[in-house]
Design brief:
Number of strands: 0
Radius of gyration: 17 Å
Length: 150
């Protein structure tokens, strides 16, 4: 159980912490310091490095989560807070893969052909969806921390 919990927490910290950093620290600086061509190229490169970590985190979160559920006796034996965390985690995963295969792909293609308006629109969509996933991720952390006491 300790291995599953450790892997689960590390994966959550990588994903949610990365979104928090990108949204609250990197985005404001990039927005004020760089013109669109440089900013869009920067974000494309940042996401190319961060998104593989998100994919690994998703695999680890789902694997360790289901492993812990199994160790605790299955879906019928766990608290409602775990069911809620699982549901939100699945929604977050679907949002991520929508970003990955939709606006992120569009952003990368726009940077390659230097279509800055299309790239800007894609980045704006990514920004909104990452904010949604960040809010959901923070909610899951609250539920994970306090859920069994509610």
């Amino acid at each position: 159980m300790i291995i599953a919990i450790t892997l689960h927490i590390l994966a959550a910290v990588i994903w949610v912490g990365g979104m928090f950093f990108a949204y609250t620290a990197l985005r404001p600086v990039a927005t004020t310091q760089f013109e669109p061509p440089v900013r869009l190229t920067l974000w494309s490169a940042v996401f190319k490095r961060f998104f593989p970590w998100v994919i690994v985190s998703i695999i680890v979160l789902l694997g360790s989560g289901f492993w812990m559920i199994y160790l605790l006796g299955g879906m019928a034996a766990i608290g409602m807070h775990v069911h809620i965390m699982l549901l939100i985690g699945i929604v977050m995963t679907l949002i991520f893969f929508h970003v990955y295969f939709g606006p992120f792909k569009k952003l990368n293609n726009s940077v390659i052909i230097e279509d800055w308006p299309t790239g800007g629109a894609a980045l704006n969509q990514i920004r909104k969806l990452i904010l949604l996933n960040l809010a959901l991720g923070l909610l899951v952390i609250i539920i994970a921390s306090a859920g069994r006491y509610l």
